[in-house]
Amino acid sequence: MTQVDGVPVQQATPLKSEADEPGWEVDPDDDWGVAVVATVGRQLKLRREARGMRAGEFGEAVGYGEDLVYKIEGGKRIPRPDYLDRADEVLGADGLLSAMKQDVARVRYPKKVRDLAKLEAQAVEVLSYSNHNLHGLLQTEEFALALLRTRRPALSEDELEQAVAARMARSEIFERSSAPELSFVQEEVTLTRPVGGKMVMRRQLEHLVHVAQLRNVELQVMPSERWDHPGTGGRIQVLKFPDGTAIGRMDDEFGGRPVSDPKQLRVLELRYGIIRAEALTAKESLALITRLLGET
What we know:
- The protein is α/β, with parallel strands linked by helices and 296 residues long.
- The chain has helices at residues 31-50, 55-62, 66-73, 81-90, 101-108, 111-122, 141-148, 157-170, 189-192, 198-212, 262-278, 282-295; strands at 2-4, 7-9, 24-25, 77-78, 125-130, 181-187, 217-222, 236-240, 246-250.
- The protein is built from twelve helices and nine strands.
- β1 (2-4) and β2 (7-9) form a beta hairpin.
- α10 (198-212) packs antiparallel against α12 (282-295).
- The protein is elongated, with a radius of gyration of 23 Å.
């Protein structure tokens, strides 16, 4: 048992070897993320030194390698939540270090995902057509994990964990007190492709049945036999904000880049409106999803 200022502190059992380097890399192009991680690292170092603990001794107490301690304190690695909790306990920080988990959690997600989540959180209306996979907001955690495992080059386990966590965090949009109006049109194939296997798909369909019944959600299905609609060019998404502005994108239009020009947005809304009209109604779509669930 390690002693800190004469007080016994139970040594943590290492969760991973030092070679595994638990933690996450910092995106050097993410200025805000770099600043947050550097600040957290500096606070950890100052508190450790104030307690008179060497890096190796501290690492042993929290259950991580000395090399990782130096990387986190130097702002080179993003600490995991359990690292901050253990540090808070070992250094007697009275919850101040643990409280940093909220900011650190945001840094874990890639900047482009944080930006998307921020836009979705501000939107009062979201329109989305997906022709290849279920929209990220509709995915369960295990479905998202199975889907992301198909990426090539393959993602590392840390990258997978980050990507899934970021996707799940976006689903908080359904729990907002002033939840936006959400419209989804999904191609039928996205409901029948058994991503992750039968049980993963079954739980995903159960989730869709639940989401489809939320008062602010309209979930529609585009039958596979209906091919002559303007969704053949790829995904469409439009987000509308309280001040009347909007932003949208489509895979094969405007270079796939987000657009906010009213003329360009009208093109996307025109296409989405036709797609919506060609799809099954929300009631018919719910009946189809329920039937598919029964067959899975």
